[in-house]
Amino acid sequence: MPRDVVGDARAAGTRAYTDAIIANLGKVPEGVRARQYQPLRIPPARATSAEGAPAPARKAIGLDVFVESALPAARLGDLLSQLAPAAGFKLKMISNRGTQVYPTRGAETDCVDHWRCRFLHAQPGEDLPLEAVHRLLDAIQGAGLRWMHLEKLQVFDGKPGFTKAQGED
């Protein structure tokens, strides 16, 4: 065994350990039954077709905007809550490292400067208009915040196609 595994001077050095492995390549072990090789059998692919399958009813109800900021959660949340209505959105929550941190749920999270900000469209009955997305991103950027990524929050046949943060209702 190498020294980093065994941890003492009786261990072989890296070169000696590697040489021993190379010297044993192709040999059958004594006293241990080798596993028999069997070729992997992969079943043939079935022909699939979406033809005739009903398309799910899809609707975008909001956005997750990933923001880079050194602001604490409460200040970032208050700022985004003020910006969102003019763009046609409501800030639902902010998460950091998978846990909801705004509005606070009391969970202690060691936050980093990468925030997922969940915005819901103010008109839930209609699909998310692209113009509203542009207005929201312009407002975020205009507030001196840096957004890096966004994801649509989509619902398929009435069921969310996105995950919730820990603590999110």
Q: Would you mind describing this structure in some detail?
A:
The chain is of the alpha+beta class and 169 residues long. It is 25% helix and 26% strand. It has four helices and six strands; from the N terminus they run ααβαβββαββ. It has helices spanning 3-6, 14-24, 73-87, 130-142, and strands at residues 58-68, 89-96, 99-102, 114-121, 146-156, 159-160. Strands 3-2-4-1-5-6 form a six-stranded antiparallel beta sheet, covered by helices on one side. β5 and β6 form a beta hairpin. α3 packs across α4 (130-142). The longest helix has 15 residues, at 73-87. The model has no long low-confidence stretch (mean pLDDT 88).
The low-confidence parts are none
By DSSP (H or I, 4+ residues per run), the number of helices equals 4
User: Percent of residues in beta strands?
Assistant: 25-35%
Helical content band: 25-40%
Overall shape:
flat
Report how far the terminal alpha carbons are from each other: 52 Å
Biggest β-sheet: count, sense, barrel? 6 strands, antiparallel
SSE order in H/E notation? HHEHEEEHEE
Quick check: average pLDDT?
A: 88
Question: Structural class, from secondary structure content?
Answer: alpha+beta
Q: Taking Cα atoms only, what radius of gyration do you get, to the nearest Å?
A: 27 Å
Neighbour order of strands in the largest sheet: 3-2-4-1-5-6
Count of distinct strands: 6
